[in-house]
C-alpha cells in the first residue's frame, strides 16, 4: 500500500488548487474593480497564470503518482478519479494553446462589454472569431476524432453529450410550449414605485443573509453580468441594479447566493482538493435555480413582499398573493437571466443549437446575429430590437464557454427533482419559507447535496440527494402545477 504516493499527489494538487484560486480572483477583479485600461495587461497576466497551471496539470509525476497511489478511503478514491480525469484531459492540450486561450478570452471579455454598451456587433465579431477558432482547436485535441461539441461540454457536465441533452430538450419542448400557450397573454400584475440603487443593494444583502450566506467568507459586488467566484473560505457573488426593476437585482443576488453557498457549504476536509468544488455546472445550477425559483419565487416571495414594502413603500400590488403573481409574471422577454420559468429553458434550447452549430462549423460567426434574430422571432414571436437584447446579451461566448449553456436547463431539471424530494422530506417547508425561515430548505440541501462536493458523479449526486434517478418529469410537473395555480388554468 503506497500512501506516500497518495500523500505527495494530494500535496501537489493542493498547491495547484491554490494557484487556480489566485487566477480565479484575477477574473473576479477584472469583472468588478479592474480599471478598463488594464484589459490588455490582464490578458497577459491570465495567460501567464494559465501557463503555470497547465504545466502543473500535465506534470509527468502525476501519472507516476496515480499509478502508485492507493486511496485510504472512498473519498480518496474520488480524489484519484477526479485527478486522473483532469490530467487525461490536460495532457491532450498543448501548453501554448491553453495559454493563448486564457489570454484571448480575458481580452475578449472587455471587447464584448464595450461592444454591448455601444450596440455594435461588428466590433465584437473579429474577437469572437478568434475565440471560436481557439475553442475548436482545443475541442479537436480533446475529441480525438469524436464530436467537437461533446468534448467541450464534458468540461462542464462530465458524461453529458449533445445527443442525450438534445433528446431531453425534445421531450421537454412540447410541454413547455403548451404551457406557454395557455399562460401567455393572461393578465398579471406588475410592481411599481421608486427603487433606488442603494435601497436595492441593502435589501439584496438582507435577502442573502436570510438564505444563510456567510459574509465572513463572501461579499457582494456589482458586475455587468452577475456571477459567483471562488470556493473554500472565499466565495464571492455579484449582482446588477436597474432602478426601474428591483427583481433584476434581488433575484440575481439569490441566484448567485445559491452558487456561492454550494461552495461554502462543502465539507471543510475537502477544501483545496479536486472534490472540494461543485461537481458539475449542472449540479451547481441546480442550487442557484432552486434558491431562486422554487424557494425565491415560491413561498419565500410572500416574505419578500413585506421586506420590499418596508424598504420602498407601496409597490402597486394589493396583497402578498398579487406580489407572488407579479414575481412569476410570464412574458416573452428578450433577456435570458430575466426570463420567467416557463420561457427560460426555451432560451437555453436556442443557444444550445446555435453554439453547437458554431463549434461544428455549420454556422459562420459572421452569420450568428442573423441566425439568432431569426430563431428568436420563431421561438418567441418577438423581433429582437437591439444587440444587447439579442446576440450580445450573454458573456459566455466571449470567454469561450461553449458547451456551458445546456447545463442551465440540466440544472433546472435537477432542481425539479430536488424540490420534489425536499417537499417530501419537509412537509411544512413552504409555511416556514413564507415567514422568511430558510433553515429547513437550506439545511436539507446542505446535508443531502452541498457538503459532498465532487465526491460523486453529477447524476449520482442528484440521485443520492433525492433517492431517485434524475429526469425532467418533476420539473415539468412542478411548472404545470405552479402556473396553473397562479393563472387559474
From TrEMBL:
Keywords: Carboxypeptidase, Hydrolase, Metal-binding, Metalloprotease, Protease, Zinc. PROSITE patterns: PEPTIDASE_M32. It is an enzyme of class 3 (hydrolase). CDD domains: M32_Taq. Binds 1 zinc ion per subunit. GO terms for molecular function: metal ion binding; metallocarboxypeptidase activity. Its EC number is 3.4.17.19. Zn(2+) binds at residues 255, 259, 285. Pfam families: Peptidase_M32. Gene3D superfamilies: 1.10.1370.30. Its cofactor is Zn(2+). It comes from the Bacteria. The keyword Oxidoreductase does not apply. Broad specificity carboxypetidase that releases amino acids sequentially from the C-terminus, including neutral, aromatic, polar and basic residues. This is Metal-dependent carboxypeptidase. The lineage of its organism: Bacteria, Pseudomonadati, Pseudomonadota, Alphaproteobacteria, Rhodobacterales.
Amino acid at each position: 500500500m503506497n500512501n506516500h504516493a497518495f500523500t505527495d499527489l494530494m500535496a501537489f494538487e493542493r498547491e495547484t488548487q491554490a494557484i487556480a484560486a489566485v487566477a480565479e480572483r484575477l477574473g473576479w477583479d477584472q469583472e468588478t474593480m479592474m480599471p478598463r485600461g488594464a484589459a490588455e495587461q490582464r490578458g497577459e497576466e491570465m495567460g501567464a497564470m494559465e501557463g503555470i497551471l497547465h504545466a502543473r496539470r500535465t506534470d509527468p509525476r502525476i501519472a507516476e503518482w496515480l499509478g502508485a497511489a492507493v486511496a485510504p478511503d472512498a473519498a480518496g478514491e474520488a480524489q484519484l478519479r477526479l485527478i486522473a480525469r483532469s490530467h487525461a484531459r490536460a495532457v491532450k492540450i498543448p501548453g501554448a494553446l491553453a495559454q493563448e486561450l486564457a489570454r484571448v478570452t480575458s481580452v475578449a471579455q472587455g471587447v464584448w462589454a464595450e461592444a454591448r454598451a455601444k450596440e455594435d456587433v461588428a466590433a465584437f465579431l473579429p474577437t469572437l472569431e478568434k475565440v471560436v477558432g481557439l475553442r475548436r482547436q482545443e475541442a479537436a485535441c480533446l475529441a480525438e476524432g469524436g464530436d467537437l461539441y461533446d468534448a467541450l461540454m464534458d468540461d462542464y457536465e462530465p458524461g453529458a453529450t449533445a445527443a442525450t441533452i438534445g433528446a431531453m430538450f425534445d421531450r421537454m419542448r412540447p410541454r413547455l410550449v403548451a404551457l406557454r400557450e395557455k399562460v401567455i397573454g393572461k393578465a398579471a400584475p406588475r410592481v411599481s414605485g421608486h427603487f433606488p440603487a442603494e435601497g436595492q443593494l441593502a435589501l439584496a444583502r438582507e435577502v442573502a443573509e436570510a438564505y444563510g450566506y456567510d459574509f465572513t467568507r463572501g461579499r457582494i459586488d456589482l458586475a455587468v453580468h452577475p456571477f459567483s467566484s471562488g470556493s473554500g473560505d472565499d466565495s464571492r457573488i455579484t449582482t446588477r441594479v436597474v432602478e426601474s426593476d428591483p427583481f433584476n437585482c434581488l433575484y440575481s443576488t439569490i441566484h448567485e447566493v445559491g452558487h456561492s453557498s454550494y461552495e461554502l457549504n462543502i465539507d471543510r476536509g475537502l477544501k483545496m482538493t479536486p472534490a472540494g468544488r461543485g461537481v458539475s455546472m449542472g449540479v451547481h445550477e441546480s442550487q442557484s435555480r432552486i434558491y431562486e425559483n422554487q424557494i425565491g419565487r415560491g413561498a419565500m416571495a410572500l416574505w419578500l413582499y413585506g421586506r420590499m414594502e418596508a424598504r420602498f413603500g407601496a409597490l402597486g400590488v394589493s396583497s402578498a398573493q398579487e406580489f407572488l403573481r407579479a414575481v412569476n409574471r410570464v412574458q416573452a422577454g428578450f433577456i435570458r437571466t430575466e426570463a420567467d420559468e416557463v420561457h427560460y429553458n426555451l432560451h437555453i434550447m436556442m443557444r444550445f443549437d446555435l453554439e453547437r452549430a458554431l463549434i461544428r462549423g455549420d454556422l459562420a460567426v459572421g452569420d450568428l446575429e442573423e441566425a439568432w434574430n431569426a430563431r428568436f422571432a420563431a421561438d418567441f414571436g418577438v423581433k429582437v430590437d437591439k444587440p444587447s437584447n439579442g446576440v450580445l446579451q450573454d458573456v459566455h461566448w466571449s470567454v469561450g464557454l461553449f458547451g456551458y449553456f445546456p447545463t442551465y436547463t440540466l440544472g433546472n431539471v435537477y432542481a425539479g427533482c430536488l424540490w420534489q424530494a425536499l417537499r417530501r422530506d419537509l412537509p411544512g417547508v413552504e409555511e416556514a419559507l413564507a415567514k422568511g425561515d430558510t433553515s429547513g430548505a437550506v439545511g436539507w440541501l446542505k446535508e443531502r447535496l452541498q457538503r459532498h462536493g465532487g465526491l460523486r458523479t453529477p447524476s449520482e449526486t442528484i440521485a443520492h440527494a433525492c433517492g431517485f434517478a434524475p429526469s425532467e418529469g418533476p420539473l415539468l410537473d412542478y411548472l404545470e402545477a405552479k402556473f396553473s395555480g397562479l393563472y387559474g388554468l
